[in-house]
Each structure stands twice: as C-alpha cells, then as structure tokens.
C-alpha cells in the first residue's frame, strides 16, 4: 500500500494506492495515527486508487472514523470504486460513515461541518 | 463440468490470502469472459477472501487448503482446515449498524459471505472443517 499526502486548507488529503485488506490495515491505521498525533483531525481519504477492500479494511475505516470523531474531527471516504462502495452499502456502514462519490462532494462535507460548528457556538 | 480448477495450500498469512485472491480472480475472469459476470466475480472473490481471512484468524490450522472449480454457470470455492468445528459462527448476523449508535469494527466477514454467495455448505469430518461457497456467475462464452 502506498500513501500520498496533500493539503486543501486545513483538510489533509490522504491518498491510498493498493488494496485495503487484512494484510495492509496496520499500515493504514499507522498513517492515520501519525496524522492525529500531529493534530490533523480532518482527513479526506482519497479511495479512487483502492482496488479492493475486505471486511478488515472496512473495520479499519470504522476505527479511523471513531478515532477522528472522538477528537472532534472528521474523516470522509472519497471516491470509492463500485466494489468498495458495495461493502459500505451491504454492511450499512454508509449510514454511519461520511462517504463522498467525488472529491468536491468530500470537501463540501467538511465545509458543512464547519458551518454547523459555527452555528452551535 | 469445466476442467479448469485451482488447488492451493498455504500457510496462514494474510499475504498468502492476497496472492490466492488474485489467482482466484484471474481464473474466474478466464472462465467467465462476459462483462456481465465481472461484478458477480468480484462478489465471489470477496466472499472467498472473507472465508480465507477467517481461516487465518480463527482456525489455528497450520495449512489452509483451497479449491476453485466450475460447473456450467456456477463457480465453487472450497476451503479446508484442520481444527475444531466452527459451524456455529456461520449463524452470525451482520452487525446492526443502522439500528444503534454502536460502531463495531469487526464481525462483518461471515455476514458478508452470506450476502454475496448463492449457497454455503459446511461439513465437519475427521477433524476437518470444509466450507464450500457456490455462486452463479452467468453464462460462459
């Protein structure tokens, strides 16, 4: 698995290339953990180059979601391919996780979160 | 019955699951060439992967044996492991993500298998678990 890190304002764009499966989830968890250690808590995971995901990969996405929401942050899973999106759908994880079919939709979700937080203050 | 088949035995390691999944996918694509089969093959490969992952995680077996074979429109994946009987796990349901605030990180594998294949057959004899998954993957060209 390869990682590519970029920024869009305060949002970290974490690009994954490879399969998100049992053999690779520790690498993914480590990357997310490194980012949160540096107080980056808004992450958009670019999944456009993830070819395959199994239930262990799904579990790692849920773990990342829990970690970041626990720090008042957010993770958006952007551009999953059809087979990856199917895992989100059949497990109904799509009802709980922030999934965006495009990068622009992903960025919009962060903006909505910021607006919502401002209203609450 | 199609003559093409695959028999692989591997030590319990997730890297070996990755290699076996790729081999299963390639052979299925070779047997079922029509484009409509593609997503059905993906489902079948995911179900096979989940069963191999479970064997690596839970069986305690030193060797995992898998077979892939075909009959007309159907693909079959069989996995054999030595060890204790595990069929009660097959009754597990999908964690209810929609009903609760809980977000479980595991427990999806068997439920995903049940969702993606047309039938599951389980047998236990001579200290061996034998699980067979069957999936209709449409007509061959």
Explain how this protein is built.
The complex is a heterodimer of chains A (about 120) and B (about 140). With about 120 residues, chain A is an alpha/beta fold. Chain A is about 45% helix and about 30% strand. A five-stranded mixed beta sheet of chain A has the order 1-2-3-4-5, with helices on both faces. In chain A, strand 2 (about 10-20), helix 1 and strand 3 (about 40-55) form a beta-alpha-beta unit. In chain A, helix 1 (about 25-35) runs parallel beside helix 2. Chain B has about 140 residues and is α+β, with helices and mostly antiparallel strands. Chain B has one domain (about 5-135): Histidine kinase-like ATPase, C-terminal domain (Heat Shock Protein 90, 2-Layer Sandwich), CATH 3.30.565.10. Helix content of chain B is about 35%, strand content about 25%. A five-stranded antiparallel beta sheet of chain B has the order 1-2-3-5-4, covered by helices on one side. In chain B, strand 2 and strand 3 form a beta hairpin. The longest helix of chain B is centred in the middle third of the chain and has 22 residues, at about 40-60. In chain B, about 30% of the residues are buried. Classes of the chains: A alpha/beta (about 120), B alpha+beta (about 140). The interface of A and B includes residues 83, 92 and 96 of A.
Kindly list the characteristics that best describe this protein.
heterodimer, A: 121 residues, alpha/beta, five-stranded mixed beta sheet, 5 strands, globular, B: 141 residues, alpha+beta, Heat Shock Protein 90, five-stranded antiparallel beta sheet
